[in-house]
Amino acid sequence: MSGGSKRNRRLLFALAAGILVAAAVTYFAMREGSGAAGARDGATELVVSAAASLKEGLEAVKARFEDDHPHIRLTFNYGSSGALQKQIEQGAPVDLYVSASLRQIEALREQSLIKESVTLLANELVVVVPKEDGVTQPMKKLSDITQDDYRVIAIGQPETVPAGHYAKEALAAEGIWNDVADRLVFAKDVRQALTYAETGNADAALVYATDAATSQLSVVALRVDGSLHSPIVYPAALLAESEHPDEAAMFYRFLQSAEAQELFASFGFRPAARGAVTPDE
């Protein structure tokens, strides 16, 4: 290898290392700054990691909860449920986690990272298309997505995005997964899949009904038969390593209240068939 190539490689490694260090410094500085602000006004900061599809509903719940509990400040970290799970496994300081799938909760429970969990909400899967295109051919069943009109189909990454996992289950159950495999583009979360359809970068996307309801740039072409995939539910969990267990428990209980459920319903979520609370012994 030439001296120039070696120097270039060293430079690239140095740049990469610098970026990682800068990201870490920024993250911890933000955490410390946020905590300091909470300390100054006497409020306790709770960090809540939540599925991206819950953003509008949780922001409404936050406003109501903080009005009623001025001594608590909520900070949300939104993303794909799988990515948030990994962050918790790697020691991220999280007090409460709301996932779009039971799989992530069970994985954390097996590692004794969950203190208690409960199923909060339910949702459904839909196919959306760009609004400017409209539905050129009515979709009566999911297999209609194999039509030539749908050459690019966006779904969440099945391994980390619950909406993508449900989409894969549905396409496989319909017997068309292999037929559409080369048309698929994978998104980092369900909101990105929706954006692909809104911007015309995808001819269709499989997303949650609640995400579709927030969109002004896409239309629902089909409501996917719920029997084609696992039930879409949102469990909430108290983290075993929470730094503020009492305050976290207060918000956990508020999420289950009729008041919070009403707020979620205004964004299209349905109440889940509430199973028993499952403490981790």
UniProtKB/TrEMBL annotation:
Gene3D superfamilies: Periplasmic binding protein-like II (3.40.190.10)
Sequence intervals crossing the membrane: none
Record has Methyltransferase as a keyword: no
Pfam families associated with the record: SBP_bac_11
Keywords assigned by UniProt, alphabetized: Metal-binding, Signal
InterPro entries: ModA (IPR005950), ModA/WtpA (IPR050682)
Keyword hit for Zinc: no
Family annotation (PANTHER family): MOLYBDATE-BINDING PERIPLASMIC PROTEIN, SULFATE-BINDING PROTEIN
Similarity section: Belongs to the bacterial solute-binding protein ModA family.
Name by which UniProt lists this protein: Molybdate ABC transporter substrate-binding protein
Organism the protein comes from: Paenibacillus xanthanilyticus
